[in-house]
Amino acid sequence: MSKNKQESKPAVQVKQLTLWEKIVRHRILILMCLPAIIYFIAFSYAPLPGIWVAFVKYNYRDGIFGSKFIGLDNFEFLATSGKLLELTKNTVLYNLAFILLGNFLAVFVAILLNEIQSKWFKKASQTVMFLPYFISQVLVGILVFYLLNYDTGLVNGILRNLGVAEESLWQPYSTPGVWPVLLVIIYLWQQTGYNSVVYFAAICGIDAEMMEAAKVDGANGFQRIRYILLPSLKPTIVVLLLFALGGIVKGNFGLFYNVVGTNPLLYSTTDIIETYVYRATVAEFNFSRASAVGLYQSVIGFVIVMVVNTIVKKIDPDYSLF
Amino acid sequence: MKKKVIAALLAATMVLGMTACGGGDTQSSAPAESSEESSAEESSESSDASDAGEEESSAEEESAGGEEAAGGDIDTSEHVVINYMTTGDAPSGEAKERLDEMMAELNAILTEKVNAELEIYYISWTDYLSNYNLTLARMDGTVDLVGTASDWLDAWPNSKNGAFIELSEEMLQTYAPKTWASIPAENWEMCKYNGEIYLIPEDNYAQWTNHGFTYRLDWAKEAGLADGVHSWEDMTTYFKWVKENKADITPWDSDGTQYATMVGGWISSHSNYIAIEGINSGAMWGGTKDDPYTIYSPYMTDTDSLVEFAKMMKEWDEIGVWKTDVLNNTTSTNRDDYRIGKVAAEQHHTQTWTDLVSHTEANKIYQEDENAESGFFYFGEETQNVVALSITHGAMAVSAGSANPERALMVYDLLRNDPDCYTLFNYGIKGVSWDTNDEGLRVIPEGYNSDTDNINGMTNFWWGRNDDLEVRDATRDWDKIDAMYAEYDKIKIPYQYGLFVPEVDSIEGQISNINEVHTNYMKQIAFGKYSGTAEEIVAEYQAALEAAGINEVTEELQRQISEVYQ
What we know:
- The complex is a heterodimer.
- Chain A has 16 helices and two strands.
- Chain A is mainly alpha-helical.
- A two-stranded antiparallel sheet of chain A has the order 1-2.
- Chain B has helices spanning about 1-20, 30-40, 55-70, 95-115, 130-140, 155-160, 170-175, 175-180, 185-190, 215-220, 230-245, 260-270, 300, 305-320, 335-340, 350-355, 365-370, 405-415, 420-425, 455-460, 480-490, 510-525, 535-550, 550-565, and strands spanning about 80-85, 115-125, 145-150, 190-195, 195, 200, 210-215, 275, 285-290, 345-350, 375-380, 395-400, 435, 440-445.
- The chains are: A mainly alpha, B alpha+beta.
């Protein structure tokens, strides 16, 4: 966008400002950015050299840069586990489901909220949907267990009271197939209220005149959503999707570890990179190997963001991140 | 063009930023970074650690013992606080008050004798190993004395990582003379890595931590087992009887973490296998009683026995010994349930049985039912295969981050050898938390409340108990316990690998993957949750172990063992 503007400007001779002059001129703006700049320097740039820990045999006394360099040895165990592909696949597929369904549902809910006329009901339903977001994953894990476990779970309790025979009761903790669905439901239950706030805010930002004009022109509710709301939300949706894609190889450890636990019967459909690495290395306390995995995930995430951004740019440069 | 580069960098930062911060869950680099500064400062000169290993450690020693050389006599003019790190949950409320009272008395003595006071730094039981290691990695002087163990608290990995100070003989002789004198030279040998002493062993305390099932002897008799359970098959009979005759009792409310002990117990009950401790939690490598230094893994060789095990556990699962979702059960309170008669068995070590068998206040079963009795079926009973405890099952080390290692040793020497300090620290204030009876046994005083007055359960001093100073607990059923110990003493062999510190750097990846395979399959096998036949699951398990590299690990361990013992 900015490029286009620059080109269309008349060729007036403007004195080139030096860097210092620019800083002085924009000092207020820069001052306002300062907290964010400091944040990123402190938490994103300053720790960057620490990536080195993934390539050394770390020992406490010599520190990250004093420890012995061992090249890619820390990455080896992931490769030799023979599970890297399956784990990456599980992680990516779950995240895809979370991102796509999550955003879809969030947009949907935001639109519904927008259409609700009663202010009281709007606030109440927003609050109710928001609440699960504040429940810790540990509690979610326990809640799910008490809902679903075979002996004392609520679901089976109801089934028993309905006279269902003991053998045909539901046994989700021995049935790997049901977990992709369950985990996605749990995720959506927890996150949708929170995610929809962003979209709801975007909807509130849409010019009311456009809506009124459409109304006057005779567009009904669905048409207004289809031709005004959704197109106006498009940039927000694309940007949020792009942001989410960066983390597509990073699993939601809290959710998976607490809900699935360490039940190997379920690993075939629920094991993600994080949970595997946690189990494999928790006994050895190996900083270097854990960091190696983190780096692997970051590099893949970086590649995905770059590729998707390039594609988005080809289609419509206005929507790309950069 | 420039813009593009900057933008790419920004994107990279965004993604990598998540590694550093968001990855905390999976204990990624964040904690490492925080410890970086302190550890880098400490030995910035020694850049090439591996080559100069020995030189470096001797240099460290000099700097550690430097003050001593300067002063000649021990200088204790400065009052210092020594932090003692132990696993256990910190007491609260009234229990904390009682602990503080004891600590005040103890610190008065310590101040008088060595001008130091002691504080306890607790590593609570939830995720204790991670938190324990994290605390050590901080190296900022948070802790001085560190309770450790070669088999369950990563004593050797931490020694190698530089978390513990090398304890030179001069240091020990100067600052912990009584301890130094009481531990024989061959025991010090077992505390060495690369020729340097890192641990002070708890080598003068009789305890048995071999595992087995505590069960209700009175019920076993009713079940037709006239002299109790003496084999796994008897155990099956017992569980079956309990399930059929005691409607509201879960035979054994196990949680999903017991798989390794169960299969380990099965193997020692059906072979002469003895395990090397401290390689992985499954203790999957070792030798035999007759030939300890030919290394093998019974998990690969004893196929028939494992199939047998898988079948029996399936039977137990079908009997309903544990709850259906046992693999997701992490919050079992089985031991406390045993005390009140809600379950019929508890799997843990002999030391726990000595508590459960005794008519203590907490063990309500004996008050409610005068016929109640607790038997112990120990793993290895069938083949008389029992190995005595390694002396580094409990040991004390000094943190390399400690500002006062000398004083820490002086305090330890008192805690371990001074009768007043020892009884205070282990039992509490006499008359409040304990007392002695006419026979000199330890009894509980009037008004004693086990919830708040049990100092022994708060200080957790498992790294230097001393039988010379122990006062026997009158509430324990010593007749039964002594009989059991005598039985062990008849058949025990000493731990065979005390001089061996495994070097796992080159096989660490394989061991991680083996752990994972073992956990995944053994959980299914040990709780009878596998599908298909026992033969199939064991074959699948062994194939997975082989793929994970178990044979390479066995070979490498054999090579290392041969170096030490031949």
